[in-house]
Amino acid sequence: MTIDELAAHTRVPSRTIRFYQAKGALMAPEIRGRTAYYGPAHVERLEAIGMLKDRGLSIRAIRDLMARIDRGDLDLGEWLGLEEKLAMPWSEDAPVVMSSDELNEALAGLPTGTLALTVEFGLVERRGDRYLVQSPGMLQVLRQVHGAGVDVHLAAQAGDIIEKHARALTRELLELFVGHAGRGFGTATTPDAIRDTIAAVRAPAQNAVSLLFARAMEEALRKLVESGLVLDSKKRKPGSRRR
User: Fold this and answer.
1) What tens digit of pLDDT does each residue of 7-20 get?
2) Which residues contact 182 (CB under 8 A, 6 or more apart)?
3) Stated pTM of the model
4) Domains of the chain, each with CATH number or no CATH
């Protein structure tokens, strides 16, 4: 079938099909003369791409995943099964939709401009006349640190730093664990076995992160005190810069 026929059959626009090809997620068609022809494999691939996009994967991630599948390193069915089994919450802090009044109540006591700040840092997303709060728990943290004397913009920046490093940490840990599935991480490579092992290490892993962060903070604070920078900062006037 031609690209227009493929688009009609799959309900994927021709322009999108070309985009997938350009990004390497969709295999090239067979060229006969000046016409490109597509077959059942392209239909199947477009269906798979649609499923993966629905799960939030970027086109780059889909391309890499499909490359592994094409090499025989991975089975799509197993991956989908594993993804479904691992899609379990690690926290009760789930996104919630709030009205303007509810959000204003949640931000009560915080400085003017805090709402715009939470939108800027991706904590809150406006949806028409309502708001999607990605992490109600982080709103509570924001209130707590502000009450302790931390500027909300500084607190939001700190949260951004923590999230960036947390994402990198979890990505590296999962690559390490899943890469050793059945060989040091659990006893098998099946989706059920990987899910069960990850669930079993959930609590100790979170505890380890908390302990290591505390130790690292203690060490950093000790070095800060030893350097004399804390006492030096007390001598400087607010807003002045050290030369």
Assistant:
1) 999 999 999 999 99
2) 188, 189, 193
3) 0.61
4) 3-74 (1.10.1660.10), 96-235 (no CATH)
